[in-house]
Fold this sequence. Notes:
single chain
Amino acid sequence: MAHGLWAAAALVVACRHVAIKPAISRATVVASVVPDLFHSIPLVVWSAIAGRDGVALLREYAFSLPGHEPWIPEWVALASHHMHCAAHSAVVAAVLSLVAWLVAPTLMIVLLGWWSHIVIDLFTHSADFYPAPVLYPLSDHTIDGLAWNRPELLVANYLALTVVWWWIARTRTAHAPPSVVGTPGALKAPRQTWRQSP
Ligand SMILES: [Zn+2]
């Protein structure tokens, strides 16, 4: 959830300076969260095939520590592992960003949400707690960062989020709807604000 809250905060601040389509903003927030969901796809598929309770399996899987996950067939574990690696890889994200830049540049804003997830995970996962393989598939190198699930870091993270959202609420001003949105020209549009009458 923190990934989405950080991405949303960044977008709210960005929207004070540039015009971004609401749909693009929403997609960017979703993109900041989905890297942690991809590896669930093989689990869901196998649950459906094997007639298992998929929701219970996902819940058990999500809250288990590395090495203590519920039993799943080897092919499911392998597929899940590679989907997790691909979703946390700067190499994969760079290829997708290049394709987006060539085909639909607006999608690069959405991919910034994905990039934010990779960068945050890179430094907030320890070597023994699902580290982000940032160079996958070229290398399995990871960084031994500070595990986000340590109580003091959890508190610090959500405290920082609280401060940021409090500041956003404090500095909120009404903005005129952007005249051109979601296009390169929109990024150059001058900032327009309303000032309420005293
Ligand atoms: Zn992640």
